[in-house]
Amino acid sequence: MKGSVAKTGKSFKNRVDYILKDDHSFICSNMASDYNNVSDLTDEFKTVSSFRQDIKKPVFHAFLSLPKNEHLTDQQWEEIAKDYLKEMNIDIEKHQYICVRHNDTDKEHIHIVANRVGLDGSVWLGQHSAFNTIAACERLEVKHGLTITQSLKGQKSDVSAPTKNEIEQALRTGEKPARIVLQNALQAAMVGKPDLQTFIDRVQAVGIEPRFNVASTGNVAGVSFSVGDVAFKGSQLGKKYSWNTIKNKVIYDKNRDDELVRSFSARKMMNQIVLDDHLLNQISMTVEPLTESMMILSESVSTALNQTQQTLTRVNNSLEATTTALNSAKNIIDQQAIKLEEQHKKLHKYSTELKNNTIKNQSKLIIKMASIVGVINLIAVLSVGYLIMQKQPTQPRITLDSKAVATSIVEQLRSKR
Questions:
Q1: Considering the domain boundaries, does residue 252 fall inside one?
Q2: Which of 21, 27, 337, 408 has the most crowded CB, counting CB atoms within 10 A?
Q3: Does this model's pTM top 0.70?
Q4: Which long-range contacts (CB under 8 A, 24 or more apart) does 138-146 make?
């Protein structure tokens, strides 16, 4: 049995979505959510991983595969999956996990996705997990009576498995690895041993372009196949897809098919790049740090945006409180203005009344003074008249009551007023 471990990841959604895509069978899990519901499983994983905000990559993903033509029951796979987690020191009483079987290659295999953060907040560190997986698989082969995997170094498999980098890229993009897409399409196109033209028509119908490498002798030296912007030599897909195998799986006649082969010659398509495993690994090693940097940058930008949003919210709340306070102050000022206006009116009325009363009192005083002056003047006149009369010859005596006269004059003045 062969085992491999992907790099720890940040997104449970991408991993769960990948393992539940296409043809799969549920094996086992300790989670409560519907085992076919990506959203619910993701939320359940994230709920527990949120216990430890310091763990930025809580996703663990491993895959175990059998040699070609070997099969296990679901129950056997369940035992192997649990034993593997135990070998890796992942306590399934604390750590969430889900295991499914994929049937998209000729090698039966399972995927295990687990949460590095435990229900109790503990963290599985997973140091040297790749080497520990190899050792665990060797022990599981013995325990479960599986075929002891021999080293494949220097050998070519009939069907090559996706590399670790290809699988990780598929996890990031959510798309099936190009290697598997090509292998499945080529296998289907060779069914029934068609002629070369029919074989080419079949692969082109599903978006695959063949390119034949024609030697200077005119013989076909090899073939490559591309899907999208990725191409593989047939031999890189496995011996089963090399030109030496394909030409025996289809009806090929060199003389008849020479023109057809040359029309798809790689020499005419120099812009088509055929990527070998080494180059793919180099590209992946270059892209992965950039991807990590972009993810870190994205997190930083997201954090900054969240902080800005929180600041704007606080400012908005402060502005609303200030506006409310200003409105309250305006209402108080308006009420005070109304009171002042009322007081001003009262003051004006009081001032007017006071002024009128003053003028009236002054008039009364003047009249009284005028009356007194008039009486004094009258008395003076009467006195003078009396003196004159004393010096005149004796006349008939006229009796004048001065008090009655004065009273009469005062009464006349009052009536005029």
A1: no
A2: 27
A3: no
A4: 139/87, 140/1, 140/80, 140/83, 140/84, 140/87, 141/1, 143/83, 144/76, 144/79, 144/80, 144/83, 146/1, 146/66, 146/70
